[in-house]
Amino acid sequence: MERTEYLCAGFRYKYDDRGNRTNTWYIGTDGSPMDRCDKGFAQIYSEYDDLDHETRVYYYGADGEPAVYQEGGYASYVNVYSERENLLTEIWYYDVQGEKVLSAEEGYAVKTMQYDEYGRKILEYYFDTEIERVFNTKYHCYSMSYKYDDRGNDTEYRYWDEDHNAMVREDIGAALYRKMFDACDNLIWERYYDVEGDLVIRKDSDYAAISYTYDQDRMTGKKYLDEDENLVIHKDAGYARVEYEYFDTGEMAVRSYYDADDNLMNNSEGYAGIEYEYDETGNLIDWRYFDQEGEEIGV
Length: 299
Known about the structure:
Layout: E1 10-15, E2 21-27, E3 43-48, E4 54-60, E5 76-81, E6 88-94, E7 110-115, E8 121-127, E9 143-148, E10 154-160, E11 176-181, E12 187-193, E13 209-215, E14 218-225, E15 241-246, E16 252-258, E17 273-278, E18 284-290, E19 296-297
Antiparallel strand pairs: 1-2, 2-3, 3-4, 4-5, 5-6, 6-7, 7-8, 8-9, 9-10, 10-11, 11-12, 12-13, 13-14, 14-15, 15-16, 16-17, 17-18, 18-19
C-alpha cells in the first residue's frame, strides 16, 4: 500500500563520495520510480560544487525525462554562490527546455541577493526571463531590503517598486515592517508603517502593531494595537489582548483573552481562557476552558 502522507510506497537515495545526496526517487508499489501526483515528478537530482553547496537541482519523471515541479512551475534551478563569502547570491529557474521561466511560487525567474560584512542578507531583487525587474507575487513588491540590530536580530523589512522607491504592499497595506527586541533578544514590538513612516493598519488583520511582555524569557502578554497604539481586536484571532500566568515552578497556569476595553472575551475558538493542571513532576495532566463570564465550558 502506498504511504498516503508522501503519496508513494517508499524512497530510494544515492549519494556522492562526500556524502551529499544526489538522487531521490519516489517508489511505487511495484518497486519502480513513480510520478507523485502532488509534485509531478519521480526523481530529484542535485549537483554540488567543491564546497558542497547544492548548485543545480533537476526534476525527472518516471520515464527519465525532465519534468515540471507542479507547485513551482519549473523543471530545474541553479544556485550561485559568492566565491569569497560562500553566500547564496542568485537563484535561476528553468523549464524542461532549459529556458528561463517564472516561478509559480513567487513570480520571478531570477532572484539576486546582497549581504553586509557580517553575511546578513540586506537586499534582494526579482527579475523576469528577460532580466527586467518583476513583481514578486508572494511578497507583493519588486525588491526587499533588510536591517538588523547590533546583536543580529532582523529589525526592518522594506518593500520597493521597480524604480526602487518605497511602495505599499497590496496584500498587507504597509510599506515598512519593523521589529524591536529587548536585551535578552525577546521580540517586544512589531509595527507596520506607510510610505511616510506613519503607523498603518495591516489590512489583512486589522492591527498596526503588536506588543509583547516577558518575565525573564517567559511571555506574559501580547496586545494587538491600532495606529494610535490603542487596543484593537484581531479579526482572525478574535481578541485584543492575551495574558499568560505561571506557577512558581515555571509551568503555565492560566491563559486569558480580553477585548479592546480590557474585559474578558471569548476568542474566535469560543473560549475566554484555559486553566492548566500538572502533576508533582510537572507533567500536564488536565486543563479546563472557561468563557467570558468565568464559567467552565466544553470546547
